[in-house]
């Protein structure tokens, strides 16, 4: 697990402490409600120094832990 992935896992677990979090864990329509999602976006923005627009909060980017990690890695690479 790389540091970006580990940091995202920790962000999610601070919001929703669950016993098993895997790349396939569903975030939208699964683990997180809308308030959790807002908190997660804020945590990610603070942790990684990126800005996430409302349009980017989508199933494409936030459907699973894995898609979220990929999205954040791309955002960091394009800073």
Features:
5 helices; mainly alpha; 79 residues
In words, what does this structure look like?
This protein has 79 residues and is mainly α. The protein contains 5 helices and no strands. The chain has helices spanning 3-15, 27-31, 34-48, 59-62, 65-77. Helix 1 runs antiparallel to helix 3 and helix 1 crosses helix 5. The longest helix is centred in the middle third of the chain and has 15 residues, at 34-48. It is globular, with a radius of gyration of 11 Å.
How is this fold's topology laid out?
Blueprint: H1 3-15, H2 27-31, H3 34-48, H4 59-62, H5 65-77
Helix pairs in contact: 1-3, 1-5
Produce a short descriptive summary.
Helix content is 63%, strand content 0%.
> Count of helical segments?
5
Structural class, by secondary structure, is mainly alpha
Q: Please estimate the helix content.
A: 55-70%
Q: Biggest sheet, in brief?
A: none
N→C terminal distance: 22 Å
């Amino acid at each position: 697990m790389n540091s970006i992935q580990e940091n995202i896992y920790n962000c999610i677990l601070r919001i929703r402490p669950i016993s098993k979090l895997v790349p396939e864990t569903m975030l939208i329509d699964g683990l997180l409600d809308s308030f959790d999602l807002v908190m997660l976006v804020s945590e990610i923005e603070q942790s990684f120094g990126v800005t996430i627009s409302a349009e980017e909060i989508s199933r494409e980017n936030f459907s699973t832990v894995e898609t979220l990690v990929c999205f954040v890695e791309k955002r960091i690479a394009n800073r």
